[in-house]
């Protein structure tokens, strides 16, 4: 989904369109992603998160993996960061909220906007 310039003006871009089909179950979609992440983290020496993170992703570590507040940018850097620290951290057993404010859900910013 690349953005494109319109009319030669660098300040006007054509934004990508989101799919019109609505995910049927946000909980199962989030769980599938989280399970995939957990599988990758279970083998840090062969960690490959390219299918799980957008190329331009950000990771904010707030003293969980390293005794330093750190922001990591790009999937490649995130992978390197996790590969280096996962052996000692042993992140596992992730669980989603199944109720309340932080459970996976579909939200529309504005009615009719997709």
Automatic annotation (TrEMBL):
Annotated region described as Disordered, given as residue ranges: 1-25
Protein name in the entry: Uncharacterized protein
């Amino acid at each position: 989904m690349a953005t494109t310039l319109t009319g030669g003006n660098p300040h006007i871009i054509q934004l990508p369109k989101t799919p019109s089909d609505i995910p049927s179950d946000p909980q199962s979609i989030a769980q599938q992603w989280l399970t995939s992440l957990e599988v990758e983290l279970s083998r840090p020496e062969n960690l490959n998160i390219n299918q799980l993170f957008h190329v331009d992703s950000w990771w904010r570590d707030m003293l969980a993996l390293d005794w330093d507040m750190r922001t990591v940018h790009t999937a490649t850097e995130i992978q390197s960061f996790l590969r280096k620290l996962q052996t000692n951290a042993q992140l596992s057993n992730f669980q989603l909220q199944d109720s309340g404010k932080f459970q996976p859900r579909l939200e529309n910013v504005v009615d009719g906007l997709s």
